[in-house]
């Protein structure tokens, strides 16, 4: 059947083609990234190394000791640490640097089966939040189901601390995380800004640093996060690109490869073409 999509052959051929492109033009991908988007100011990288370490600390697997000890060595006092490993909940910690009035909320990424189940609840669902999280916005947004539900539970838990202690005391609030923790950090930032409008008055009141976050929000909501969210993505990381658009593009490409294979008799439809 000429109309039947031979996914096995086209998949293997696509992998081979990508390998050949990488071998013949090793700088091509990096060149594409360099030409894409706009140039980032050098000041944007200031402090990212510390934010990455604080995000990584949420896993509590640091080579220099337990999370409380490492935070202390960095000048932070840990006031809360939740190691929960339940689907739909996010492990996290809260630490304060009192001399600088900085509060860190570190959200743990995927480290076990329970977190993977949260990741797997990946339906794009429309939700309504309490108030707009940015000036001129609405209360409706579309979000990754597992991320929204787990982040909402985290916001419910931390809301009294942020609203009644950190904000009145003039603390700068920084939320950081990696992977699932990055997605949770972004959504937590959105929810806190929605629930506590004073956090919208200045970009310095609440900042989010998200490392390797999967795509979780609709386009309009994502763009509205630009003033308070900094995301960091590795060129080779598939997680931040794990959405329907790249999947559809890949499928279209594979179908074109499949057509070429059939024309050349290499579509694995019989023993001879399979061996070829």
Fold and architecture overview:
The model has no long low-confidence stretch (mean pLDDT 90). By secondary structure, this protein is an alpha/beta fold. The strands form two sheets. A six-stranded mixed β-sheet has the order 1-2-3-6-7-8, with helices on both faces. Strands 4-5 form a two-stranded antiparallel ribbon. β2 and β3 form a beta hairpin. 43% of the residues lie in helices and 16% in strands. The chain starts with 6 loop residues before the first helix and ends with a helix. It is built from ten helices and eight strands.
Describe this structure in a few short sentences.
It is built from 10 helices and 8 strands.
- SS elements, strand count: 8
- Gross morphology: elongated
Largest sheet: 6 strands, mixed
The number of helices is 10
Chain-averaged pLDDT:
90
CA radius of gyration is 22 Å
Task: Give the ordered list of helices and strands.
Answer: HHHHEEEHEEHEHEHEHH
Question: What's the end-to-end separation, in Å?
Answer: 19 Å
What's the helical proportion of residues?
Answer: 40-55%
What low-confidence regions span 5 or more consecutive residues with pLDDT below 50? none
The computed structural class is: alpha/beta
Main-sheet strand order equals 1-2-3-6-7-8
- What fraction of residues sit in β-strands? 15-25%
Give the key terms.
276 residues; alpha/beta; six-stranded mixed sheet; two-stranded antiparallel sheet
Outline the secondary-structure elements:
Layout: H1 7-24, H2 28-35, H3 48-57, H4 67-73, E1 77-82, E2 92-97, E3 102-107, H5 113-120, E4 124-128, E5 140-144, H6 145-166, E6 172-178, H7 180-195, E7 206-211, H8 219-224, E8 229-232, H9 244-263, H10 271-275
Parallel strand pairs: 3-6, 6-7, 7-8
Antiparallel strand pairs: 1-2, 2-3, 4-5
Helix pairs in contact: 1-9, 6-7
